[in-house]
């Protein structure tokens, strides 16, 4: 049984990364949280496999076309990451507006009551 050609494996790895990015884009557009998570995990595996294929291939296997496709995939991945960070920040701001935090410490006003102050003096 012959092992797959490392150069062909690299090209297939790049194609798989591109497919995973397309699927993740579609999942994000659909707003399906379970599908987004599954596609993000699939992309992570594709990136790991692609790195393995790149390390196993000969230096000349990274043709100008493959290099360009990898750069485009990297740009798409960075754009997706920025979009996720922006969405998380927006969600955090919305939650902060809906559920403002009180300025009290851990015990809130309980530590300021006369009984709490008397207890504090008793233990000094």
What does it look like?
The protein is built from four helices and no strands. The protein is mainly alpha-helical. α1 runs antiparallel to α2 and α1 packs parallel to α3. The protein is elongated and about 80 Å long.
In terms of topology, how is this protein built?
Blueprint: H1 6-30, H2 33-56, H3 64-98, H4 114-122
Write a concise synopsis of the structure shown.
With 124 residues, the chain is mainly alpha-helical.
Task: Fill in the keyword field for this structure.
about 120 residues; mainly alpha; elongated; 4 helices
**How would a textbook summarize the main sheet?**
none
The low-confidence parts are none
Helix/strand-derived category reads mainly alpha
Instruction: Give the integer mean of the pLDDT values.
Output: 82
How large is the radius of gyration? 26 Å
Total number of β-strand segments? 0
Question: How much helical structure, as a percent, in the residues?
Answer: over 70%
Provide a count of the helices: 4
- N-C termini distance: 81 Å
Strand content: under 5%
Shape: elongated
Order of helices and strands: HHHH
């Amino acid at each position: 049984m012959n092992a797959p050609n490392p150069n062909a494996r690299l090209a297939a790895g790049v194609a798989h990364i591109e497919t995973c990015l397309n699927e993740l884009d579609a999942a994000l557009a659909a707003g399906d949280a379970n599908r987004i998570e599954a596609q993000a995990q699939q992309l992570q595996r594709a990136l790991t496999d692609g790195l393995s294929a790149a390390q196993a291939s000969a230096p000349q296997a990274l043709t100008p076309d493959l290099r360009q496709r990898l750069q485009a995939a990297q740009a798409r991945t960075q754009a997706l990451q920025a979009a996720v960070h922006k969405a998380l920040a927006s969600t955090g701001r919305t939650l902060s507006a809906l559920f403002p935090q009180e300025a009290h410490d851990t015990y809130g006003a309980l530590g300021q009551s006369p009984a709490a102050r008397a207890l504090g003096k008793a233990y000094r």
